[in-house]
Design goal:
142 residues; binds zinc ion; 3 helices; binds adenosine monophosphate; globular; 5-stranded antiparallel sheet; HIT family, subunit A; alpha+beta
């Protein structure tokens, strides 16, 4: 656990998150500033700032859960015809939160998704995120 790391705070239950899946190794929750509705982040519970610092077993499980989430999103009823998996490793690659994470981003034709957001973009309302998370959690269980 790293002091001041927002994702470690989510792991500890000290910061709000709309969680869609969790197990002993990873947590998956909705991105607060989604590229498209249902944009999920999969993170290891153990803090690792970069891919170099990531335990390879944790990395394998992050990928496994991200892969599972692509199927979950497609059957969840939210708009998801295709998916981008994205991992930003390093500032120049666009990493902003230094607790490594895999983005799972629902996509569809002409969705106008912009992979780079403005730094001052506002977070989605928590009720909106919670409604989407409930829909995704239901699909995890099926
Ligand atoms: P990256 O640029 O790959 O480091 O992505 C960081 C992502 O974390 C961005 O898409 C942010 O919108 C998202 N994010 C930052 N803080 C939070 C938070 N407290 N809860 C959910 N998502 C967050
Ligand atoms: Zn952390």
């Amino acid at each position: 656990m790293e002091q001041g790391c927002i994702f470690c705070q989510i792991v500890r239950g000290e910061a709000p998150a709309s969680i869609v899946y969790e197990d002993d190794t990873v947590i998956a929750f909705l991105d607060a500033v989604p590229i498209t509705p249902g944009h999920v982040l999969v993170i290891p519970r153990h803090h690792a700032a970069s891919l170099a610092a990531l335990d390879p077993d944790d990395g394998r499980h992050v990928f496994t859960v991200a892969q599972r989430m692509t199927a979950v999103l497609r059957r969840s009823g939210i708009h998801c015809d295709a998916v981008n998996l994205l991992l930003n490793d390093g500032v120049e690659a666009g990493q902003r939160v230094f607790h490594i994470h895999m983005h799972v981003i629902p996509r569809w034709a002409n969705d106008n998704a912009r992979m780079r957001r403005d730094p001052d973009e506002l977070p989605a309302a928590r009720e909106t995120l919670e409604a989407i998370a409930a829909q995704i959690r239901a699909a995890v269980e099926t």
